[in-house]
Amino acid sequence: MFGATRRLHQSSVNEVAREPADHLKTASAFIPTSQISPISHRHAVSRLTRTSQRAGRSKHGAKSDARTDKPKCIVVGAGIGGLVTAGRLAREGFDVTVLEKNSEAMVGGRVGEELVETSKGRFRFDTGASLFLMPEIFEETFSSLGVALHDAIDLRKVEPPYMIFYEDGTALNLTMSNRALLKEQLDQLEDDGYDKFMRYLDAADGNRLFGVPNFIQFEFSFDSINAFLKSLLSMWPLSSHHTEAGRFFSNPKLQALVTFQDLYVGLSPYSAPAVFSLLQAIEFKQGVFYPVGGYHTVAKKLLQIVRSLGVKVHFNTNVKEILVSRTLLSPSGYEAEGVLIDKPGRDDEAAKLEASLPRSRLRDMGKTAMMVSSDIVVVNADLPFAEEHLLKTPPALPSFAPSIGRDFSQWDYSTSVVALYWSFKDRLPLNHHNIFLSSEYRTSWASLFDTTSNAAFNASAFNFYVHASSRTDPSACPEGCDNIMVLVPVPALDERMSADEQQRLVDRTVSDAREGVLRRMEAVPGMENIRSSLLHEFVRSPMDWKRLYNLRRGAVFGLAHPLRQLVIFRPGPKHPTIGNLYAVGASARPGNGVPLVLVGAKQTAERIVKDFRRRFGSARFIDDDTGEGDKGEDGGGAATRRLFWHERRGKEVEAVK
């Protein structure tokens, strides 16, 4: 199912070892970088495995570290991006270990779930991501790991994608399957409102067709140019989204309707570039979906798949530091040696960790810490947090040496959210996805991004999102009941305040947001008795997001996406100063949201493989099934001209010493 497994040809390795000098000269010629193909499930998997069971053990049968072991990779964090990067690398022959500080129940990071038992039965909540968009990206991801998406996930289309509730009592059922109803509703708000909406979506789709392949996937497409040039006739992508929406609609309600999604990228419609209209094109042109069993099903399936590929995933394992040293192996002069973890207690998790790694990779670092060595480290923790807390300049460096970590204190961050998870004994008149928009739209956004003072939540003017997953997946709650997740955007934590000051402000914010949501919802016909119907609630505040997931400032969407933090200006997959350190996640390129993180995982894995091949070369492989091996450019056994990775790295290490 995963292609033929390959093993290193032992005689070739022996030949390499006999003449290291000649092979060092030609190792870099193994695979020209222009010929490196993307990681793909369609090709037989090139796996760097042990030379043989005999070569990997001593004469007494004990496990040893043969020089032909797979290159070692540690992934810090078992979020969606970390799991997918780990799985892709495992299929390319890397020995991958994932270290996650939280329990297995929290795999997937912010793609989480909570189960609540009540007198009425069990309620299931998505605690973070709830909009399943761009299924083609999920299909490519699962396929790259050897599994068809439809075999792993039961996807249902959400129709209508949204219900919009305005503060004056107006409601819009944004159905795309009943165009007559949609036209009736939009034309009531503005003359020719439906035709203007469809023209807007056409222009937005031009931004999607151009923006996704060129600026998200980095796969330049000439076919997208015509659509983009056509869209320029009606929408300028770099002006503010609100300004461009005003060119289509005069009614503020319709302007709000097509711009509220800017929150997903951590921006206000008044500052977000209009190119983010591609979000509406994705939702209304492609559709919104939902995985039966909850969004967390995606994370659980990915965990199952990567484990089947040989990835070792350890939970309840806190990484304290990424250990960095000076080296001549990296052009930048720095390289990660591994990670420092809290020394495991004598529990099952500790036993699993120690049993899965050879002793040569573990080093006692005192009473409370242990080092795990690695050839490559991938950060799937929140990147601004990791740069500040996990990277420390080696003490051996002179005082004038630059810091190895990047300073993200002056970068723009997305908002945080107050998340309310409510179990109701009655069913509420809601759709699957619901947006409550303020009548003071500009004011509702202003305080969220106010950086001039200690910004407080504006309880008199705010927007919020309501998720009722049982509309698509009845298994989410008992029949006749409702499971409701409410997300209220609030300012990110102000780092100029003390922890006590932050907590007092957050407590007031949670109280004001909760009361404001109840007041707005009970004004909707059919929800007058919402307070008395409430069976159970739990809340996540900005402080909770920071504590649970190490999110700097509690910013749930990570770094924001203004123009100065887009594309090449956003942190890329490879660290700029540490040669073997990489990153994947919402704050890295291409950006936040599960589909973009999946694209980022693909790009990070491909960059690692490309760097690995360019730096260390590769080896000849023998197919276990056919006995046939890869042939070099000369048509013969390519490994007779190159050093296997650990062999070559050993020579470089000796040169450094």
From TrEMBL:
The keyword Oxidoreductase applies. SUPFAM superfamilies: FAD/NAD(P)-binding domain. InterPro entries: Amino_oxidase, Carotenoid/retinoid_OxRdtase, FAD/NAD-bd_sf. Residues 1-20, 41-68 are annotated as: Disordered. It comes from the Eukaryota. Residues 80-608 form the Amine oxidase domain. GO terms for molecular function: oxidoreductase activity. Pathway: Carotenoid biosynthesis. Keywords: Carotenoid biosynthesis, Oxidoreductase. One of its GO terms (biological process) is carotenoid biosynthetic process. Gene3D superfamilies: FAD/NAD(P)-binding domain. The keyword Translocase does not apply. This is Amine oxidase domain-containing protein.
